[in-house]
Every structure is written in structure tokens, then in C-alpha cells.
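Long-time lurker, finally posting.

We've been working with ATP-binding cassette domain-containing protein (Populibacterium corticicola) and I want a structural starting point before designing mutants. I don't trust myself to interpret raw outputs, so I'm hoping someone here can both generate the C-alpha cells and explain anything notable. Sequence follows.
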Amino acid sequence: MPTLRTPHAEEHMDSGLKVSGITVGYGDSVVIDRLDLDIANGQVLIVTGPNGVGKSTLLRALAGLQYMDCTEYLIDEKPCSPHGAKHRAITHSISEEWPWLPGLTVGDHLALYGGIGQGDPAASRAFEYLGITDLLDRLPFSLSTGQERRAALASIAVRPWKVLFLDEPERGLDLEHQMLLGEMLKELLPGRCMAIATHRPDLFAELPAVELKLGA
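Top reply, 14 upvotes:
Generated this for you. Predicted structure of ATP-binding cassette domain-containing protein:
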């Protein structure tokens, strides 16, 4: 497959995320075959396509949650194993299942992520965007599906990361919060890069993005 490179990536001092020769499969079935990605800092890769085409598989592989073959994996032009401690320290991933810990409130979970912390203005704005300010003292099991999804997404604002992987982040959100999520990501993007698998690319139209259509 040809290299997918975001527009104007050459204008950035570093390349964000660069992965070459991505091959992912299940048994004898190859889902992603020799794909090259080069996402500049300040840019977003939007992965689209029908169900079952490999969007979640690609995001999981890039996030180090699923085995893949690749010839090169670089973050800010430095080699980084997707299964190593360094990768876990500078990336963040949100998929359908979120690992809530028993007995801890939403605020407790967000505090565990450290980074900029709940009192930071950017975190406070994110909590307002997602409507979770009044949920911080709640236990996750007491939340509705939409509230739980918004609480998980709030971790984006408190955890330090250089590369963010989001698998259908709009799932479980009403239209208002889907739109607000796009605004929050735009505010958090500078100096970092993201890969988002979605059925609603229009929600991220205000982000500087390039689209990868799987199964096209």
C-alpha cells in the first residue's frame, strides 16, 4: 500500500507518528497489508470504512493493544516499540471498553492519570465540554452509558500524551456532546497528533485532518 502522509507535514519540525509496513491479521487472514502512515504533529488521521473492514484493528495495533508486523515505528522521529513502557508513557488510547477500577470514583480515575491534573484550565474546559463536572464524585457503575463514555473521554485532558488513538469516540454520545468533543480535540491538538476511527468524519471537519478509507 502507498504511504499516507498528512498535508503540509514537511512544515513541522518533527513528524509525530510514522509507522511503515503495517501488517495485521487473524490467523491466515490479513486485515491490514503493508500500510505506511506518516502523521505530522498538529494533524489528525481519520480512519473510515464499513463495519468489519479493520478500522478498530488498525487502531488497536497502533496503540500496542494488538500484535502487528511493521518495519518502523517512530514517535517524534525516535524509535518506539508499540508494546514498550515508553510507548505507554507517551500515547493514550480509548476504545469501546474502558478499564474502570472497583471502588474508585470518576475523579479518582482521572487523578490516577496524573499529567496536567483536574485543576488545570484545559482540563476544566474539557470537563465542561463533556458535561462531567458534576460526575467526578460518582462511581462509574452508577453512570448511564453516555455519562460513562464522556467520563472516559475526559481522560484525554488530564493524561500526558504525544499520540492519541480514538476508536469511534462518538459512540454513546448525543449530538451535542459529539460536536463538543470535536472542539475539545481541536484545543488539545497543537504539538501532538491523533488517529481516530469513526463513522462520522463530519464531526471532526474543523480539525486539520487526512482521511484513510479502508475497504475503498
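Before you design anything, note these points.
Strands lie at 3-5, 17-26, 29-39, 44-48, 72-75, 78-79, 91-94, 163-167, 193-197, 209-213.
The chain is about 25% helix and 25% strand.
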